Amino acid sequence: MLIFAHIRDNFANAFFPRLSEWAAAGCLLGVGWMLSINSDLMTSTKTQAYQLMLMIAEQSTWATFMLIFAAARLVILLINGAWRRSPHLRSISAFLTCFFWTQIVLSFLPTFGFAFVFSAAFLCLDFVNSIRAARDARIVDAAYSRGAQSGGQD
User: Fold this and answer.
1) Are 20 and 129 in contact (CB under 8 A)?
2) Who contacts 60 (Cβ-Cβ below 8 Å, separation ≥6)?
3) N or C: which end of the chain has fewer CB within 10 A?
4) Distance of CA 7 to CAs 19, 82, 88, 101, Å?
5) Residue 152: is its pLDDT beyond 70?
6) Tell me: the pLDDT tens digits for 102-114?
7) C-alpha distances in angstroms, 42 versus 2, 30, 36, 101, 131?
8) pLDDT of 3
């Protein structure tokens, strides 16, 4: 029971300061899930919005990679909040997620509609998330080099 209390307390302390990271990872998971459920979305649409993404990979491939990557990122965030501080992994995963957002942004640039604006917002958000997590990594590295066990984040 003590382990669950520890996880609950640490998770709660780490969740709200990283809410934008959780939101971006959750949205990417949602996009991957939507692509896996709506299996002909990219090919049956009346616009050419998905052509850039389809030149890179099929819809099922995009869905699979988005689901796997978003789930891994959510696990990194969970571990960061519950057990061990992992700002290096948070920074890398936020930066790598920018690849998915960039592809979506570039795909919807010709239509310049809602999807473009929303995906551009998530691209900017994850770029900032990457920088913030890198700053956290620098703080943790400095604290560990001074011998602090908490990594300076308690």
Assistant:
1) yes
2) 35, 36, 39
3) N
4) 17, 5, 20, 31
5) no
6) 999 999 998 888 9
7) 48, 16, 11, 16, 32
8) 59
- The token pair at 138 is 């620098």
Q: Which helix (H) or strand (E) element contains residue 25?
A: helix 19-37
Q: Where are the alpha helices (DSSP H) in 57-86?
A: 59-82
Instruction: Give, to the nearest 10 degrees, the angle between helix 19-37 and helix 59-82.
Output: 150
- The alpha carbon of residue 39 and the mean position of all alpha carbons in its chain are separated, in whole angstroms, by 23
Q: Yes or no: say if 34 and 78 are a contact pair by the CB < 8 Å rule.
A: no
- The answer, yes or no, to whether residue 64 has pLDDT greater than 70, is yes
Q: Are 143 and 152 in contact (CB under 8 A)?
A: yes
Considering only CA atoms, which of 78, 57, 58, 86 is closest in space to residue 12?
78
The H or E element containing residue 120 is: helix 114-145
